[in-house]
Amino acid sequence: MKRGISYTQAFLTLLQRDLKIAIRHRGDIFNPLLFFVLVVTLFPLGIGPEPQVLSRVAPGIIWVAALLASMLSLERLFKADFNDGSLEQMLLSPQPLPILVLSKVLAHWILTGVPLILVAPLLAVLLHLESNSYTALILTLTVGTPVLSLLGAIGVALTVGLRKGGVLLSLLILPLYIPVLIFATSAIDAAGLNLPYTGQLAIIGAMLVGSLIMAPFAIGASLRVSTN
Amino acid sequence: MWKWLHSYADPERAYKLASTLLPWFAFSAILLISVGTIWGMLFAPMDYQQGESFRIIYIHVPSASMSMAAYMAMASASFVGIVWQIKTADWVAASIAPIGAVITFIALLTGAAWGKPMWGTWWVWDARLTSELVLLFLYLGVISLYASFEDKVLAARAAGILAIVGVINIPIIKYSVDWWSSLHQPATIKITEKSAMPMEMLAPLLINIVGFGLMIGAITLVRYKAEILARNGMRPWVRELAKAEASK
Amino acid sequence: MADNNQQQVLVRANELTCIREDRILFDQLSFEINAGDIVQIEGPNGAGKTSLLRIIAGLSRPYAGEIQYIDTDITQCRDEFNEDLLYLGHLAGVKSELTANENLNFNLRLSGYDDFDSYDLLAKVNLGGFEEALAGHLSAGQHRRTALARLWHTNCKIWILDEPFTAIDKKGVEELEQLFIKHTQSGGCVIMTTHQDMSLITDEVLRKIKLDYRFV
Considering chain B, what is the average pLDDT of its residues? Predict the structure, then answer.
């Protein structure tokens, strides 16, 4: 009996498993996406259809909706594994927990973050976003949504064992999302005015690196508390 | 150092330490706050620009500065609790959180009350007020996470992790909010440049800041003692203590 | 158990205290589990059997005390301990969206093995023919067997099993008992809870840790 599984293989095995499960359980992918689209379509109905007004608030609306959609979809990140005992097996696996956790978050981002990025330009059209802001929108979403997933996963890990997680989760993680929101929307605004926005993008990138390094440990520690 | 710290991992010793410290904190807090507040409210010179309303500074600034300090203290206690697995340190964090939230709320309230005569409106999205509001949310998160767990030993550990995550994020949030407000605020609404405060105005302020710190310390100790008793209700030493109290 | 090389202490509990919602489940509990032991944790419902198993596995932290794995606190040597630990809890850790084969493959790879024949292992737990069936469509017993199949391919010494015989038929129980005996004879140990009577593992081989429910 040989134990020849490397960290990379363990990472990929878990990634593959999570993707497979999600594909057999498609609703989980589409519901948050639908929520994202719905929230965005509500705004023109709420504040009026004037293109000038909409294009002024479009970056903020799209990003706030993305924050909410990300939070909503994250709620299920560890729930199923917690309920059927797989999570315990992961905690007791000889593979380092931060690597396994990172794999789960990546799978989750591929399933929920990427569709969000793909559908965002469509919503930008609905909201009359400045045409020169599109690249900035896609770039900020690409760099920013993984940060949301990583930070959000901490909150999810802390609440996975609780029966009433939902509202609590928003209180735990939305304040942590504020910096991403600020820099992302300002990057899109800057792009709309033909100003450089690499600075804002670099800051979001730095947040991504920071959360990639630190969040897996916090998530792991939180999961150990939650399964206690 | 760690030996010294570890000896207070025992709830009974931590309880005794808290009982010894409490009167010192309480008396010095009462003394400093009364001196600082009376001096500030009645005797300190009036600000020539803002008139009497500036005196709210003697409540606002101490509570605002202590709201951040209390979060730091909470996160430090959680850090000790998690790294060295000391339950009594987790409980310190759990005892600070509600006090920190109240102090933050006071800072917000006095900030708004000060804003009314200054800016003509109760609320402006000023960088400091916004950061303070986010801080309040962070506190509320810790408190409600703690309240949601039935097992309070676990609750304290979970809240501790959240406090540490929060403390890493606070500088980032603060920086981003400052940057955001510099981007969006027209220059007209801005707190008057910190002119050199004359000594007679500054001294009561400093006294009150220290006094508020001590007051938070004292209330934390009271809550901490209650927390230890609640977690150790079935321990023999708590029962003896209860008997001794009852026979008094 | 007179054999000298079997006297190695694998797991030692030092003055464990477990408190759940203001009730002391056990206090200052100490014991040693040697290589070659089959240990059953006994006690009425609510006495803390599962809590004790989870504490030994390192999933729960005791209120006070520690678990040692070969003389080191398990929180200090989690990786080494996990390499040597096979824990199966109440919940089987089997995903209903995956097939029996996929489940076993994943669980074994998660424990680090890459040299196994999962069809062969599933045949050993009488799941031949069900390899590609979704676990969600299997019966409770088959579900359980999917998880138990790991026991046939492991080099972990410490097995911690919470009610392993639940939903398993008589013949299956006997096969498991044989496996436990073989495992302990080759230097491992089994720590478990069960409500069922065992036929092969008699009271002479079985060590018991009794927990009783009490009010303070």
Answer: 86
Contacts of B188 (CB under 8 A, 6+ apart): none
Q: What pLDDT is recorded for position C169?
A: 87
Reading chain A (228 residues) residue by residue, the pLDDT tens digits are 778 788 999 999 999 999 999 988 877 778 889 999 999 999 999 999 999 999 999 999 999 999 999 998 898 899 989 999 999 999 999 999 999 999 999 999 999 899 999 999 999 999 999 889 999 999 999 999 999 999 999 999 999 988 877 789 999 999 999 999 999 999 999 999 999 999 999 999 999 999 999 999 999 999 999 988
DSSP class of C62: -
CA C31 to CA C42: how far, in whole Å?
Answer: 14
| Chain C contact present for A228, CB below 8 A | yes
Answer whether B146's CB lies under 8 Å from B158's CB: yes
Answer yes or no: do B151 and C216 touch at CB < 8 A: no
Residue B217 banded pLDDT, cuts 50, 70, 90: very high
User: What residue spans define the domains of chain B?
Assistant: 24-243
Give pairs for C74-77: CB < 8 Å, separation 24+: C75/B85
Question: Between the CA atoms of A117, A118, A124 and A129, what dihedral angle is there, to the nearest 10 degrees?
Answer: 70
C19 interaction partners in chain B (CB closer than 8 Å): 153, 234
| ipTM associated with this complex | 0.90
Contact (CB, 8 A) for C135 and C103: yes
CB contact under 8 A, B233 and C23: no
Contacts of residue A31, defined as CB under 8 A and 6 or more positions apart, other chains included, come to A72, A73
DSSP helix, strand, coil percent of chain B (3-state; round to 5) = 80, 0, 15
Query: What is the dihedral angle through the alpha carbons of B64, B66, B72, B73, rounded to the nearest 10 degrees?
Result: -160
Q: With contact defined as beta carbons under 8 Å apart, do C46 and C213 qualify?
A: yes
**Between B152-184 and B127-148, two packed helices, what is the crossing angle to 10 degrees?**
160
Q: How many CB atoms are closer than 10 A to CB A139?
A: 21
Which one of C81, C85, C91 makes the best mutation probe of the A interface by having the most chain A beta carbons within 10 Å?
C91
Domains in chain C with CATH codes: 1-84+156-216 (3.40.50.300), 95-155 (no CATH)
pTM value? 0.90
Pairwise CA distance, residues C15 & A104, whole Å: 37
What sections of B125-235 are H helices per DSSP? 127-148, 152-184, 199-231
Q: Tell me: the pLDDT tens digits for A50-63? A: 999 999 999 999 99
Q: How far apart are CA C57 and CA C156, in angstroms?
A: 13
